[in-house]
Amino acid sequence: MNTGLAASGAAVPSAEARGARRDARRGFALALPATLWTLAFFVVPSAAILLWSLFRREGGVLITEPGFDNYRRFLEQDTFRLALWNSVEVTLMVTVIAVILAYPLAYVIATRVAPRRQRTWLMLAVLPFWTSYVVRSYAWLLVLAPEGVVNRFLTLTGLAAEPLALSFNRGATVLGFVHFFVMLCTLTIYASLARIDPKLRRAAADLGASGLQTFLRVTLPLSMPGVAAGAFLTFVIAIGDYVTPQILGGNTELLMPQVILLQINRRADIPMAAALSTVLMLLVTAAYLALARWLTARRT
Amino acid sequence: MNDRPIRWDWVSVLVMSPLFVFIYLPVAVLVLFSFHAGQVPVPPFEGPSLAWYAKVLDSDRITTAGLNSIVVGVVSSLIATLLATLAAWGLARHRVPGARAIEALLFLPLAVSYLVIGVGLLVAFSAVGIGKSLIAVGIGHVVLNLPLAFAVVYGQFDRDQARLEQAARDLGATEVQVFLRVTVPLLRPAILAAFLLSLTFSWDEFIVAFLLSGFDPTLPVVIWSMLRTGLNPQTNAAGTLVFLASLAAGIVFELALLRRRRDARTR
To answer: Does the beta carbon of B18 lie under 8 angstroms from any beta carbon of chain A?
Structure first.
């Protein structure tokens, strides 16, 4: 329809211009409800967070005179600084481990399984993805409990003399995260790998590249968009997740989302929660900028 | 397509099996011990017994929360899918100035943590005096799902589909006929996929519901409060039911996408 107008309209510019305006109006009207919803319930609340982060709470009263008190407290108090550091550490660890585990899985499915069966294997590999994340963390608690399956196995086989403390520590948090994000990264990396023309690999081999050289210089670079997409999603979701560290990590060390919830539920200090949320948003923006090279390359 | 035979070399098996054990271990333990007859869901397994499922279905708190989750899920997914379909239509089939900016805006919530979106809504709602309720949760879930639903439906409006619509017009179909007999049938799997994806995400969503639901909790929030009692086969049974419901939606979603792809191939 658009192309038809553009081709025939040159002779009658005013009619064409009118048609184009009508077309634009119609398109805009269709996109309007979604745009308004996003503005009202996403952009405005985000702006509210920024604004509230400048307020402060003193003696149970909200003081709306803007200032940077919350951010100063964030930089000065160990609880907050430590939470940020823990969050960044855990999230980076999870991202790296998830990608390293997911890559071979995606690679085997994309290159070693017959094309007809790849979809099925991929579905099987990510089936537990559909468990709700509260349930999934609880399920890991069952596995890691002192009386749980892993400890029972270790003590029965004599690999451990007594049950190990596997839950309520950082290791458990990382494990619970990695489980979910291995599945997510398998999906994104597979999508990239499946798009690579097998002819390219064959051409590299014909030109005398070894298997390793073909992988390092053809397959890996071409699959980087999938790796970056998986890494970015992992970072965004993991750094903002409250459930996994709260259930599996216990209260041994707090991550940013736990500290934010603490401000809301225990302290009723919404301004501080807003400031911490802003820091979280900044971290995600930083992650996006770090990976932007591959993330934007993907779209074109 | 060149259908190579499966080459199950030992390296592939060595890579696949430990990862599959890792991926399936918690789900297997969760489901197995939901049939446990004892009081604590740890080995050795006793049973099987359906006692804990009976207890779950007997609990008013859990079934009410389940109903809440279904209502919030269905309504918010319908809204998200409708808004997404309209927007995809407007941006793909009309030449709108600033279309890229609108697209970017619609995708933006994907780059923000659910927690931050939830805190934002909490702050904004309390500022204008909207209390915690299932409606607040539903509004939040539309925000979370709109970008995904938009991505799924928008992806379907490709050049092939525009060509088919043009072909129908050239063959003398009226605009209404084009819409009803070309556009909608081609779009239906994508719309269904967008709806089901939204539905499963809403069904499983915890943090926004936790922050905004108040006295009418959704199912994940109730399961969360059940965790305070520690390991309990009743939680296993409830978790298994939640998993099965998501799985069912997930499988229908996969089939809808698969059909879309097959349609694309036969074109």
So the answer is: no
Chain B residue numbers touching A289 (CB-CB < 8 A): none
The structural architecture, per CATH, of the domain B60-266 is: Orthogonal Bundle (1.10)
Q: CA neighbours within 13 Å on the CB side: how many for B26?
A: 29
Which chain B residues have a beta carbon less than 8 Å from that of A284? 111-113
Q: Which of B13, B11, B5 is nearest to A215 (CA)?
A: B11
> Quick check: A260 and A277 in contact, CB under 8 A?
yes
- A207 three-state secondary structure: coil
Cβ–Cβ contact B264 with A under 8 A: no
pLDDT tens digits, A190-237 = 999 988 888 888 888 888 888 888 888 888 999 998 999 999 999 989
| Candidates B1, B14, B20, B23, partner chain A, best to mutate (most A CBs within 10 A) | B23
Domain residue ranges of chain A, discontinuous segments joined by +: 2-52, 71-299
Which of B7, B146, B239 is opposite residue A138, by nearest beta carbon?
B239
pTM of the model: 0.88
Both structure tokens of A49: 């967070």
Q: What is the CATH number of domain A71-299?
A: 1.10.3720.10
